[in-house]
Amino acid sequence: MRLAKPWITSMLVACGALSTTIESAHAQASYPQKPVKIVVPFAPGGASDVLARTLGLKFAESTGQQFIIENRPGAGGTLGAEMVAKSAPDGYTLLLSDVSVLTIAPRLYPKLGYTSEQLTPVANLATFAHILIASPTSLLKT
Question: What are the phi and psi torsion angles at 39 (to 5°)?
Answer without folding.
Answer: -90, 130
